[in-house]
Structure formats: structure tokens, C-alpha cells
Amino acid sequence: MHLMARALEESFHKTISLALTDRVPGCHYIAAPPKTVAKMISNISQRHAAQKRPRPAHNVDCLRCMVNYVNASQLLEGFSQVQNTFQILHVTNGYADWCVAACVCACALVRTCT
Hints:
This protein is an alpha+beta fold.
């Protein structure tokens, strides 16, 4: 998984950066390094131990980034642009109970074929 993440890292960051910074004025994109091998192994042995094999397939957030927005409408536009560029497979939002907009979320993304 780590080797695959390293191979896709440049393309991922370029694609998502262009999807956001070119289309959502004022947002700030920050690339992050792929998840480490130690973290992936830890997740497989702890968080994904009881899940269906192949367990590495549950390690879906190997490539990451951070995007800062000025306001909520920018965040919603950014999320819309991500949906236009990637197929969102899963969203984790620990604030869903009290937050109407997806203020903090981790998305598992797949590039759409266009």
C-alpha cells in the first residue's frame, strides 16, 4: 500500500490541488506525505483486525492533504469540486451530531474516469 501511495502521490496532489485552487478562490491547499508503513501496519493489526480480508483494503486514507477555507460557502464549493473530480466512497465526520456542514471530514476518494 505504501509503495502504491508513493507512486500515486504526485498525481493525486496535482489533481486535487487543481480541482480546488483553480475553482475555489481563496482556498489554501497543503499536501501531506502518505501514511507511513508503521501506521499502515498498526491499522491492519489493530483497527482492521476483525475486518474481512484483504485487510489492507480497509486502509483507504493513504494519501492525504489539507485545505483551508475562509468561510462555510467556500467549504461547500470545495466539497462540490472534489465530488466533480473524485468519486467519494466514504466520509468520516466526527462532528456530524452538531455540525450541519461537513466541517471536518476525511474522505476516501477514487478518481472518476472522464
